[in-house]
Amino acid sequence: MKRRLVGLAVIFMLMGGSHVYAMAVDAVTLQDPALEARARTIMQGLRCLVCQNQSIEISDAELAGDLRRIVRERVAAGDTDDQVRAHLVARYGDWVLMRPPFKLSTLALWAGPPALLALGGLGLWVGQRRRVRAAPPPLTEAEKAQLQEINTRN
Amino acid sequence: MRWQSFLPLIVVSFLAAVLFVGLELDPKIVPSALIDKPVPQFDLPPLPGKEPGLIAADLARGGISLVNVWASWCGPCRIEHPQLMEIAKIEGVRMIGLNYKDDPAKALAFLQQLGDPYESVGADRTGRVAIEWGVYGVPETFLIDGHGRIVLKHVGPLRPEDIPEKILPAIQAASQ
Question: Which of the following CATH numbers is that of domain A2-101: 1.10.3210.10, 1.10.8.640, 3.30.10.20, 3.60.15.10?
């Protein structure tokens, strides 16, 4: 038990460590640390179009670097976070967002998994109920007597 | 047998069909956000000796244009080049080049070696204008109608069969 706890603790420590993720290094960043932090947060939410499952913040692709420059420019120019995102969505579509918005075209994406889960749960529940209903009927008097006889014989 | 017995089969068949269609889709292709939108504003210098450069207004002068994003360092651009030479022969279609992050001398050498299908070329040294077009790799090709609107985007090299299957029908549709 104790060993298992230690093992679990090690696993959690390793998982915690993975939160320190890679970051692409740019020669030019914003002077104001607050603005740079905002730009970084926006970059985390933007998908790199070249290495598709990375954000532009951590991608080393050349295009990701170009897009980071644009994000910093827009932030420095006084755009809100939403305005910066909209600027890129206008050029690359919703695809560029790590978290696609909920709308008709993304309905299957957002509602699909919960719907499947509900469907599976429903199936399980119906199956369970049927099994209960299909339980064998109680013993008749004759069967009870027979059982009694077998038990006393042994 | 009750129909419920077939339920798992139905569900699995449905899933299989969905996943099978998914196998055929290319996840690397990002749909363009600019379809049916006017071409973005830009002003690009020419490749030396191929004056003038290229501005957005060049694409809104009536007539159909094909804007091809290319670079001399791009291997697939060499593969699609014969197709561009072919399309350039079509009457009433202007072939325009957007030279992406290239060394002008190398770009010119490329055209000298393989032939020059372009009526004009804009040199996008920084790749900034390409971002305005939503470009995320080379080659990419856009079809622009007479009003300067983007009607089609092709990602990756044009294969010989893309001309009759994709480009010609789109040109026809855009001419109407």
Answer: 1.10.8.640
Question: Binning pLDDT at 50, 70 and 90, where does residue A1 land?
Answer: low
Rounded to the nearest 10°, the torsion over CA A103, A108, A112, A114 is 10
Yes or no, beta carbons of A66 and B133 under 8 Å apart: no
Q: Which sequence spans correspond to the domains of chain B?
A: 31-175
Residues of chain B in contact with residue A50, where contact means CB-CB under 8 angstroms, are 136-137
**For chain A, what are the domain ranges?**
2-101, 105-153
Query: Which are the contacts of A88, defined by CB distance < 8 A and separation ≥ 6?
Result: A46, A67, A70, A71, A96
Could you tell me the pLDDT band of residue A14, with boundaries at 50, 70 and 90? low
Judge: domain B31-175, CATH 3.40.30.10. Answer: yes
Task: Pick A90's closest partner by Cβ from B31, B33, B136.
Answer: B33
Contact map slice: A 76-105 vs B, CB within 8 A: 89-95
Summarize pLDDT for B80-136 with one digit per residue, the tens. 999 999 999 998 899 999 999 999 999 999 999 999 999 999 999 999 999 999 999
Q: Which amino acid is at A42?
A: I
CB contact under 8 A, B137 and A50: yes
Can you tell me whether residue B67 is helix, strand or coil? Answer: strand
